[in-house]
Write a structure and sequence with these properties.
Number of strands of chain A: 4
Order of helices and strands of chain A: HHHEHHEHHHHHHHHHHHHEE
Strand content of chain A: under 5%
Helix content of chain B: 40-55%
CATH superfamily of chain A: Cytochrome c oxidase-like, subunit I domain
Distance between the termini of chain B: 61 Å
CATH architecture of chain A: Up-down Bundle
Chains: A mainly alpha (about 550), B mainly alpha (about 270), C alpha+beta (about 180), D mainly alpha (about 40)
Distance between the termini of chain A: 55 Å
Structural class of chain B: mainly alpha
Radius of gyration of chain A: 23 Å
Helix content of chain A: over 70%
Order of helices and strands of chain B: HHHHHHHHHHHHH
Structural class of chain A: mainly alpha
Shape of chain A: globular
Oligomer: heterotetramer
Number of helices of chain B: 13
Shape of chain B: elongated
Number of helices of chain A: 17
Largest interface: A-C, 76 and 68 residues
CATH topology of chain A: Cytochrome C Oxidase, Chain A
Largest sheet of chain A: 2 strands, parallel
Number of domains of chain A: 1
Number of strands of chain B: 0
Chain lengths: ~550, ~270, ~180, ~40
């Protein structure tokens, strides 16, 4: 561990600071939209808060976590120093400057456009430039990961790339593919409008470009958690990874199928046709296959551990697992939330059925369970696992770590289960104040308060998480394990892996074919039918 | 990179391509052909029409007839917004200054009204708001004995020049007026509106960083009587040039006390 | 000697087959809904210029709300504008095919009708269209469910679904909430 | 670990079956009764 120690430390602290801010804002938002009167509530403060909550979690927490954990994997899995660490620090600086630019513009109330931007609503140009800097930082990280893998492969001809690094590079390749959408929207439509160079915008085109990014970005957030599932959890449970080949295949399937499916975010949009919506729904159905594969492969790996610890009978291995270890506990809770969130997702993606739940709290429950639940709880577990290596001290109290994980799980369920019911009842999204005088909405009040209680539990858990990390600084015993010891070995460690599962040339070609087939006409139509444009509505300057 | 083509790769490459092409073929067969044709038959549409609708080449749903409308256009205002117009309104010009001399008698040389009870302040007002009202006076969508006559001879370019000219002036400094503070219910209407009556916050459209409708005017620095009179005109329907009755639907839900309170609030508020 | 590698790959492939089977059942159910119940998402590639929407015939103020055409087709036209629906209350009959058409002169809006599958985004530049049959009567809530500016929370309308017998259009074929 | 991990297979099959059953229940008893849309 040479360069990566400080890099990972810096990135993860920026990520968790953004996380804590977003958590506090999230709970205030739940209070604001509940029947209980909340302080500081105006439309402007509420929607600025939603923008900050989304930006902090979707852009800052995730990008910095992916980059920080990527540097850690690159050095420990490949067991060689990171190439060009200077560029890694330049990228970090770019990301921090970009984040500050975005945060300042939001706090001055000049960016109430939410983190998914709603053109023709246009915020201050500094908000968008801030996000461009964060994306640019992540692009530098992608190049560093590709270079690190290339160097390792030249130094180890013919040998399979360690699974953790293969997955990290798959994530980087997918991220390079998917940021093309949001980059095109920002550079050609939104930023020129924010600079005042254009007075109108093609809203249909910008929504389609953003949908290109909108699905693969959630897999960009998800893959570090899946790296933990495949490479850290079997080791933590005392077992072996059931199949290394299937692990590689799962990450390749994510790369291929998460990109040409963005239109399932626009199923209710008028400007995209039924035919292409159906095509992308069929491809979306295949996106659930790698997740189901993971459930089985990790289940099998845990069964190996459970049997080794004396688990008997069909499910006896479950009880025999070392649940007192945070990584194992987090995995169990993560899969439970993934099941619930996945159920919500299957209904969201089902073509005409999306009409029942689109833009309701059902969707909010889906992504809080999968991103806020499965992904973030594994971010906690990853942090707990690598903090001893970063600080050189052993974990002071596993009990507090387990409590924090349980609180997060319980808080997430209490918050999101009512949202499923409210979603089916028609509670719509992004609302600052509900009219509880209306009989239909009045019936929602008690459910909203229950989900607020879940939010408060999540806040307690989040603050306990930060406390647990800080507690490492006062811990005394030195860290025992070597960093490399975190990674699991497979039942059959792969001596030779087919070239297709050791590089991305074939998969890039297939992604290109799929993107042309799935997004070709949906994007070209805006230039063929010359769709009318809408006037820019600025939210950042004096009337 | 060290991946030379390896014979054991061929099955992977084969299987991957077959899987993807079969999913694509399945989707094209059902999504592009079978679903539209069968749905179209149920709605009395021929196969070609319903396939074109499903592909998004023709408007309408493949499963239902497309409604028609022969309604005549009866717009409440004839302003036609465009990007070019918005850009022109953002550029003050000399022509505007010369024309503005005609307006000084009531609106003041630099857009500061000589009598805020009767004539609105134009200094620092949104150019789009001034342009729309001038346009409506000329087209008769809004009637006023003096302004209808003043607007009649103006061409569109002149109206744009005038609007850009007055919008370029700094806003008037607030004269200390001993109006009673409007009170919390009024400030709640301004900042949060009233969901029970479906009234959005006034600042959702009239606030500084609101991103509201293009022609929504700035209300600060206007005379109390003028603001109250306009709100009452919207409430009674005497003034009806607001696009899609936005202001009429809000004014109709406001009580007289609230109208006076809101007028007082905006007249003494510098920046909001 | 642990399980042979072929055994592992075989079990994984068997599980992959089951996963694809599960997903195929869902796709078949979707296709069934499409073929038998004619259920589609609300696509409608019909362009209209938002900047001059108020000057058009179809979406001119007097033509908004529910209309019964000469051929009996029931259509309700609603404009979604920053921060109100015009009209704010529409009347529609239950158990009869109706069409709702939406347009926006300014920014993105969206609607859902509580308790029904009526749901669509309203994007400037396009006419949104939903064909449906209301199965339940009563005053249903139709809020704007997409962020459209600071007044988004207060933007809501009512859909009054009445039994077919009570749905009586006037001479011009119009039906409105207060008149009925 | 001599043979195929039947426990993991059963657990995965159980959860996937639950997911599919749940989807069908919502599809039949919540979605379809809400009326045809196209």
């Amino acid at each position: 561990m040479t360069h990566a120690r400080n890099l990972t430390f810096a990135h993860l602290w920026v990520a968790f600071i953004a996380f804590t801010i977003a958590l506090v804002l999230g709970v205030w938002q739940m209070w604001a939209r509940s029947p209980l009167p909340a302080p500081f509530l105006t439309a402007s403060t509420y929607f600025s808060s939603v923008t900050a909550h989304g930006t902090a979690t979707a852009y800052v927490l995730t990008t910095f976590m992916v980059m920080g954990f990527g540097y850690y994997v690159a050095e420990t899995a490949l067991a060689r120093p990171l190439p060009a660490p200077r560029w890694a620090w330049i990228a970090f600086a770019l990301g921090v400057v970009g984040t500050l630019m975005a945060v300042v513009t939001i706090l001055t109330g000049r960016a109430a456009v939410l983190f998914t931007f709603y053109p023709p609503l246009i915020a201050s140009v500094f908000y968008y430039l801030g996000l461009v800097l964060v994306v640019a930082a992540s692009w530098i990280w992608c190049v560093l990961m590709l270079v690190a893998m290339g160097q390792w492969k030249r130094a180890n001809p013919g040998r399979p790339v360690p699974l953790a690094m293969f997955a990290t590079v798959a994530n980087a390749v997918m991220w390079l593919w998917t940021t093309v959408g949001v980059a095109a929207e920002l550079l050609f439509q939104v930023i020129p409008a924010a600079l005042g160079l254009k007075a109108e915008m093609d809203v249909g085109l910008s929504r389609t470009l953003f949908s290109w990014t909108l699905h693969a970005i959630v897999y960009f957030w998800l893959i570090p958690s899946y790296i933990a599932f495949y490479t850290m959890v079997p080791q933590a449970a005392g077992g072996r990874l059931y199949s290394d080949t299937m692990g590689r295949l799962t990450f390749v399937l994510f790369l291929i199928y998460s990109l040409p499916v963005g239109l399932h975010h626009l199923l209710m949009d008028p400007q995209q046709s039924n035919a292409f919506k159906f095509l992308q729904v069929a491809l979306t159905a295949l996106v659930s296959v790698p997740t189901l594969l993971t459930v089985f492969t990790i289940g099998a790996s845990l069964e190996i551990a459970g049997r080794l610890r004396g688990g008997r009978g069909l499910f006896g291995w479950i009880a025999a697992l070392p649940w007192e270890r945070p990584m194992v506990l987090a995995t169990g809770l993560a899969f439970l939330m993934l099941g619930l969130g996945g159920f919500g997702g299957l209904i969201n993606m089902s073509y005409g059925m999306n009409a029942m739940v689109h833009n309701t709290s059902w969707v909010t429950a889906h992504f809080h369970l999968i991103f806020g639940g499965t992904v973030v709880i594994m971010y906690f577990a990853i942090a707990y696992a690598i903090w001893p290596t970063l600080t050189g001290r052993a974990a002071p109290s596993l009990a507090l770590q387990r409590l924090q994980l349980w609180l997060w799980f319980i808080g997430m369920l209490v918050m999101t289960l009512p949202w499923h019911t409210l979603g089916l009842l028609g509670q719509w999204r992004r609302v600052a104040t509900f009219n509880y005088a209306d009989p239909i909405i009045a019936a929602w009040g008690p459910w909203v308060i229950v989900s607020l209680i879940g939010g408060v539990i999540l806040l307690a858990s989040g603050l306990l998480f930060v406390y647990n990390l800080l507690e490492f600084n006062v811990a005394r015993e030195p860290n025992a394990e070597a960093p490399g010891a975190l990674y699991a070995t497979a039942v059959h460690p792969p001596a030779r892996v087919p070239a297709t599962l050791n590089g991305f040339r074939l998969w890039n070609a297939l992604v290109l074919v799929l993107m042309v087939l799935a997004y070709g006409y949906p994007l070209a139509q805006f230039f063929i039918i010359k769709s009318p444009e809408a006037l820019v509505h600025r939210v950042d300057e004096r009337r | 990179m060290s991946d030379e083509p390896d014979p054991r790769d061929r099955p992977w490459r084969l299987w991957a391509s077959v899987a993807i092409l079969s999913v694509f073929a399945f989707s094209v067969l059902f999504g592009f052909v079978l679903l539209p044709v069968i749905q179209g038959r149920g709605a009395g549409l021929d196969a070609w029409t319903s396939i074109c609708r499903a592909l998004g080449i023709a408007p309408g749903s493949p499963a239902a007839p497309q409604p028609t409308s022969d309604a005549k256009a009866q717009p409440t205002t004839r302003v036609a917004w465009s990007a070019g117009l918005m850009e022109a309104l953002a550029r003050p010009s000399a022509a505007g200054a010369t024309l503005a001399s005609g307006c000084a008698a009531c609106h003041g040389r630099d857009g500061r009204s000589v009598d805020t009870k009767l004539y609105p302040d134009l200094a620092g007002q949104s150019a789009a708001a001034i342009y729309k009202q001038l346009y409506d006076f000329k087209q008769g969508s809004r009637a006023n004995p003096v302004m209808s006559a003043m607007a009649q001879p103006l061409t569109e370019e002149q109206m744009v020049a005038l609007s850009a000219h007055f919008a370029s002036f700094p806003v008037r400094a607030i004269a200390p007026v001993d109006l009673a503070a409007p009170g919390e219910p009024i400030e709640r209407l301004v900042a949060r509106g009233d969901p029970a009556r479906g009234i959005p916050a006034c600042n959702a459209c009239h606030g500084d960083q609101s991103g509201g409708p293009v022609e929504a005017p700035r209300l600060t620095h206007q005379g109390v009587q003028y603001l109250a009179a306009q709100l009452r005109a919207f409430k009674s329907g005497e003034r009806r040039n607001d696009i899609y009755s936005r202001m009429r639907s809000v004014a109709a839900a406001l009580s007289d006390g609230e109208i006076d309170g809101l007028a007082a609030f905006y007249s003494i508020t510098r920046a909001y | 000697m642990p399980i042979a590698e072929e055994g592992i790959v075989r079990s994984e492939l068997r599980w992959a087959a089951i996963s694809i089977g599960v997903v195929s059942v869902i796709m078949l159910a979707i296709i069934y809904a499409g073929l038998v119940h004619h259920i589609n998402p609300p696509s409608n590639i019909e362009t209209i210029d938002p900047k001059t929407l108020h000057l058009t015939g179809e979406f001119t103020e007097p033509n908004l709300g529910t209309r019964v055409a000469a051929d009996g087709q029931i259509t309700s036209r609603i404009v979604a504008t920053q921060f109100t629906f015009v009209p704010r209350c529409i009347v529609l009959p239950a158990n009869r095919p109706v069409t709702l058409r939406f347009a926006t002169p300014d920014v993105i809006h969206g609607i859902l009708v509580t308790g029904t599958n009526v749901n669509t985004m309203i994007v400037p530049g396009y006419v949104s269209q939903v064909h449906t049959v209301f199965t339940r009567t009563g005053d249903l809530l139709m809020p704007c469910h997409e962020y459209c500016g600071l007044g988004h929370s207060e933007m809501s309308a009512t859909v009054r679904v009445v039994p077919p017998g009570d749905f009586k259009p006037n001479s011009q074929g119009a039906v409105s909430c207060d008149a009925r | 670990m001599r043979e195929v991990p039947r426990g993991a297979f059963a657990l995965a099959a159980l959860t996937t079956g639950l997911l599919l059953a749940g989807w069908l229940l919502v599809y039949l008893f919540v979605f379809l009764p809400r009326g045809m849309v196209s």
